[in-house]
Amino acid sequence: MSQPAGAAAHQQPDELLLDLPPALVTGEAVELELRPASVLTRGLALALDAVVQLAVLVGGLFLYVIATDGADEATLAASALALSVLALVVLPFTWETLSRGRSPGKAAAGLRVVRDDGGPVRARQALVRVLATVGEVWLTGGSVAAIACLASARGKRVGDHLAGTVVVRERVPRSQLAPLEAPPELAAWVRSADVGVLPDQLAVAARTALSRAASLHPASREQLLGSLASEVAQHVSPPPPAGTPPERLLAAVLAERRDRDRVRARAARERRDALHERSRRLTGL
């Protein structure tokens, strides 16, 4: 909803920026769809998963005792250990891998595990998280996981730090932002400029300001975009042409940053596919 012109005119530039928590940032500085889950929501999802796992463990033990009436204590102990591994390790590893980061509890709470770069979680990362869960959740009653989540800006527990993952909310309203395009008069300059050192937080602030520019009072808009353009220009080399309007400078830098990010992602995907193909040929599979 647009703010009243009079109110916006009295706000300082910093007050017009969204106070966004640390999140995943794309090349175009759009990170509104991937927000780290809160500790409370993660705790709820973990509790639901624990209920499912304990139900499997207790139910399996009950059925085993009935089916093997009269078994000795050593056999029962070995069976209990095997069922514990099944319920606490194999089961969560399987559902997190096959569902690409969603367990029953996370699905109910609208959460998903993703890599730090926003990609889907892989089997290796799922295994690391599950093994860490045994220590930081089951053996310590969840105290280690809770402390780690509270100490992390993204709510990451120890398993997330080891695996390079983060739990994000899936049920966040999608922001329909107009795509950015580099102004024609700045295309040649921005293609040769170094924009990779632009901090993520500054890029997000610039993208947010551009998306809200039309709703701001003209004086506040000029002040805000001018301040951001000056800060962005300090991280770009060579500097933009003299007299470049702030809004067009921000659009050019963010659009180029997005395009380069796409090129890097495509190159990484092609290298990975080529490596998989070589491995397939060498193994004959």
Query: Roughly what fraction of the amino acids lie in strands?
Result: under 5%
Shape: elongated
Q: Low-confidence parts lasting 5 or more residues at pLDDT below 50?
A: 1-32
Average of pLDDT: 81
- How does the helix and strand content classify structurally? mainly alpha
- One letter per element, helices H and strands E, the order comes to HHEHHHEHHHEHHHH
**What is the total number of structural domains?**
2
What is the helical fraction, as a range of percent?
Answer: 55-70%
Task: Report the end-to-end length measured between terminal Cα atoms.
Answer: 57 Å
Assembly state (oligomeric): single chain
Q: Nearest-angstrom radius of gyration?
A: 25 Å
Number of helices: 12
The largest sheet, given as strand count, sense and whether it forms a barrel, is: 3 strands, antiparallel
Strand order of the largest sheet: 1-3-2
Number of DSSP strand runs: 3
